Amino acid sequence: MNDASMITRAQLEVDLKDALRARDERRKLTLRGILAAVQRAEVEGGGPLGEAGLTAVLQREAKARREAIADAQKAHRPEFAASEQAELVIIESYLPRMLSEEELVRLVQEALAESGAADLQQLGAVMKILGPQVKGRADGRVVSDLVRQQLSRTPPDGS
Fold first, then answer.
1. Class in CATH terms, 9-92
2. Radius of gyration of the chain (CA)
């Protein structure tokens, strides 16, 4: 997948069929897991998921893999960590490109300027501006930490 294409359940199903034909076991198992998670979300939501819903499912699946990798590394199970890492790579290929640190810093600075925030008490105002811009493309905790860093560097008199 590339950044410009829209994620659809149909595309995931086509990719699963391609993986079956190619006998790509890792991709097949990963896509089956993703489609099962999509189906659960559709049942819970009472209908088909749009692109945002599919992206949310993929992000949850990616987060689960990252946590499993961390747990496997703590338990000294490199083979399990490698397996989860391979699945994570497949899942991330369907997600929008993540923002780089430089892009995040620029967006935070623009949001700070737009909001006029000068201290940590105005963190919410900055996050309200940033939220839609970074949703699905950056970890919210990382963004919040970056905003906190920038606000704690800002002199109280705004100069």
1. mainly alpha
2. 19
- Type of residue found at 136: G
CA distance 104 to 130: 10
CATH architecture classification, 101-153: Orthogonal Bundle (1.10)
pTM of the model: 0.68
pLDDT band at residue 116 under the 50/70/90 scheme: confident
H or E segment at 46? none
Q: Sorting pLDDT into bands at 50, 70 and 90, what band is 33?
A: very high
The letter for the amino acid at 156 is P
- What's the Cα-to-Cα distance from 34 to each of 11, 37, 51, 82, 159, rounded to whole Å? 12, 5, 14, 19, 50
Q: Which residue shows structure tokens 């925030």?
A: 117
- pLDDT tens digits, one per residue of 137-156: 787 788 888 888 888 875 55
Distance from C-alpha of 98 to C-alpha of 116, rounded to nearest angstrom: 26
Cβ-based neighbours of 9, under 8 Å, separated by 6 or more: 35, 38, 48, 49, 54
